Each structure stands twice: as structure tokens, then as C-alpha cells.
Amino acid sequence: MLRPTLGTLALFLGMVLWSAPAASQEAGVDSLPLSLREALNLGLQRNPEVLTAGYNRSAAGAGLWDAYGNFLPRVNLSGQLQHVDQGTFVLFGSEFDSPESYNTGYSWDITHSLLDSGRDLLRLKNARANVDQAIAGYDLQTLSTATQIETQYLEARRRQALVQRARSEIESRTRQLQLARGRYDVGSVTKSDVLLAEIELNRAEVAVLQATQQMEEARLGLRRLLGGALPDQPLSLTTTFQVFQPAYEVEDLVARAIREHPSLRESRARQEADAAQLWIARTAYLPSLSLQYSLQRTAADTIDFVWSDFAEQSFVGLALNWQVFSGFERHNQTSQANAALQSARAEEVRRSLQIEQDVRTAFSRLETAYASHQVARRSVELAAEDLRLGEARYRTGTGSFVDLVDARTRSAQADVDLITATYDFYLALVQLELATGLNLLPAEVDRP
Predict the structure, then answer these.
(1) For the chain, first and last CA: distance in Å?
(2) Which of 109, 262, 357, 415 has a CB 3.0–4.6 Å from the CB of 139, allowing a cystine?
(3) Which among 305, 279, 430 is positioned nearest to 362, based on CA atoms?
(4) Where residue 292 sits, what CATH number does that domain have?
């Protein structure tokens, strides 16, 4: 009776000694907590691709001001001041003096296009469509970057969970080793059980090293997507993810995606711009009418710049320009613009079909991921019960240590499969977000 008691005491002390350094090491790490909301906020502010799309959007806004400027007159002011020093010149062999002189002049020129065959209105329509296209392009880039950040965050979070699971497996393998040593001390088993337990413990330690390396690589990928906005210190990803039963209707998702997806909004804006360009090309066959007003003042040898000494000349003109025939240049421009418009319409059809396919595929994968998670959760329960029975059989001597190791391996694999199934579900949900262009993450997942 004394030897089993000592074996149990040795097992307890081994567990305490093993867990104490690990706990102190974990508490001593000065890690930076980072939630999914914080990661998305940083990424959408610092990611270079999002910044580039924002610059393009701002430039499109400047183009809209340029289109409005076509309705205003063009004003040009020019002036000159010329001073000629006194000198001499020779004419027919005789030398003459050249007096000092001053020449001064300025002019105003105002030109206004009264009738530009409607091209100014069409240019304004084209500029607005370009703004809409730039905004849709920015939204599309934001959607793409956000889903990349979510995917990388989920991958890093999964790797973090796998590291925690690998560390807990070391604790389990340590208890298993202590159990084998305790039974060996009382003469119930052979030395081979202890050696096999030590081998399994070594494998668990190697698994921790490998899982930690993969976790750090995933976190480095997350740092890159966030534009390097994070300090160089360990990360602690704090957002937790709970699997839920999807309550989406695939037909509703398809309809909303066709209506709201940034890719299709960008395509429709491009069609509007191309349609405006087509009409601009067609108006080249029509005349244009413009009004010009000029005022010039000039003076010579006027040092004091007295206005009464300036000669004044004004000009008012009304011009009609109609290019009757210029070869087939306008026909070529119209054909090119019409081809661009038809291509844009075909591109919208292609994108619509692709989005519908992506939505239906992503929805099917989400349902499959949910079903897989339910199976994995049930497998964890079964593997835990199998492990409990295996430990009980080994303690009573009715089961071998090899059977216990196999049960422990099956239980560990079931836990890993459950972790993988959990994050596979959310990865499928993120892909559905990318396909639909909608925010589908539940409210408890703290996305901005």
C-alpha cells in the first residue's frame, strides 16, 4: 500500500513542477493584445493598397472639378515691358544715334464656349461616372484587404490555439509518463512503458516547437497586411470565435451581391463613363459656337505709365466651327467608343455570373464547414470517453500502455480537428463575405 501512495505523490509533484515554469513563462511575456476590430482599423488605415486606392479616388474628384470648369469662360491676362538702351546704328555708311525707348502693353482675353454640341454636359457625366468608378474601386480594394486581414487573423488565431493545444498535450504526456513510472515503481509494468511514454513526451515537445514557428509566421503575415503598424513585440490575438448555425438564404445573398457588390458597381460606373465617351465622339459631327472678347492696351516711351497715353484696342468675336469632313477619323473614334461600351456591358454580365457562382460555392462550403464542425465536436466527446476508459483499463492492469498511447493520440487529433473545423468555418464565412461584398460576421465578433 505504501508504494502506490508514493507513486501517486510522485505523479502529483511532477505535474506541479512541470506546470509552474510554463505558467511563469507565459505570464512574463509582454505581449500586445490585438482584436480583430483593431487589426481591421489599422489595416484599412495603413495598408499600402488601400492608400493607393484612396489616392486614385481623390484624383477622380479633381477630374469632376475640371468638368465643371468647362462651363466657365477662359480668361487670359498677358503683359510685357520692354526697355531699349540708347545706341547707334549705321545706314549707308553714316552713323546715327538710337534713342532710349520704352514699350509697355497688356491684354485681356476672354473666351467662352456658348455651344459645344453638348460636349460639356457629356464631359460632366463622364467625370461623375469616373468618380463613381473610383469610389467603387476603393470599396472593392477595401473589401479585398479586409477579407485578407480577416483570413490572416483567423489563420494566426488558429495557430495560436494549436500552440496552446500542443502545450496542453505536453502536460497530458507528462501525466502519462508519471503514471507509467508510478506503475513501474510498484512492479506492475515493464521499463518499456516508461520509455514509450518518454518518446511520446519528446514528440509533444517537438510539436510545440513546430506549432510555435507556424504561429510566428502567421503573425508576420498579419503584420505585413497591417502596413507594419504594429510594434516589434509578441502578439496576443484576443478575439474568440464561436461556431453558429448559418441562417442565410442563398437566393437573398445572390440578389444582394448582384445589387451591391463593389465589383459590379465599378463595372456599371465604367459603362456610364463609356456611354458618355460614345456621345462625345458622336457630337464631333455637330458644330460648335464660341464667343471671344479681347482688350489690348499698348504704349511707347511711357516712363510714367500714364493711362491716357495708352492706345486701347478691343475685339469681340462670335465664331461658328463645323468640321464638315475630316476623313474617317470621327467614324473611327465613334466605333472605338461603341466597342468600349459594349465590352463594358459584356464585362458586367461576366462579373455577375462569376459573383453568382462564387456566392453559391462559398455558401455551400460554409454549410459543409458547419456540418464538419458538428462531427468534429462529437468526435472530441467520443475520443475523450475512449481516453478515459483507456486510462482506467491501464490503471487496473487490464489494458496495455500502447492502447493508452493510441487513445491519447486519437483524443489529441480530435481536439486538433475541432480547432481546425472551427476556424475553417470562419474562413468559409470570410470567403462568403468576399463573394457577396457584405458584412456577415456576427455582432459578437468585434468587426468595425
Answers:
(1) 62
(2) 262
(3) 430
(4) 2.20.200
How far apart (Å, rounded) are the C-alpha atoms in residues 294 and 108?
A: 6
Cell of 419: 480547432
Indicate if the alpha-carbon torsion angle 223, 224, 227, 231 is positive or negative: positive
Q: Which of 86, 360, 38, 47 is nearest to 225 (CA)?
A: 47
User: Please, which residues have CB within 8 angstroms of residue 281's CB and are 6 or more apart in sequence?
Assistant: 330, 333, 334, 336, 337
Q: Please tell me whether residues 180 and 274 are part of one structural domain.
A: yes
Domain count, the chain: 2
What is the spatial distance between Cα 181 and Cα 13, in angstroms, rounded to a whole number?
A: 13
Kind and range of the H or E element at 312? strand 311-321
Q: What would the pLDDT profile of 269-309 be if each residue is shown by its tens digit?
A: 999 999 998 988 888 888 887 777 787 777 665 555 565 56
Task: Examine residue 441 and state whether it is found in any structural domain, yes or no.
Answer: no
Cα distance between residue 6 and residue 12, in whole Å:
10
- Asked if residue 342 is part of any domain, the answer here is yes
Domain membership flag for residue 446 = no
User: Does residue 79 lie in a domain region?
Assistant: yes
Question: CA-to-CA distance for 260 and 271, rounded, in angstroms?
Answer: 16
Q: What is the pTM of this model?
A: 0.77
pLDDT tens-digit series, residues 194-248: 999 999 999 999 999 999 999 999 989 998 999 887 777 788 889 989 999 999 9
Three cell numbers written together for 384: 475523450
Strand partners, 288: 321
| Sequential DSSP letters for 140-196 | HHHHHHHHHHHHHHHHHHHHHHHHHHHHHHHHHHHHHHHHHHHHHHTTSS-HHHHHH
Q: How many CB atoms lie within 10 A of CB 80?
A: 10
Name residue, grid cell 481623390.
Answer: 58
- Collapsing DSSP to helix, strand or coil, 231 comes out as coil
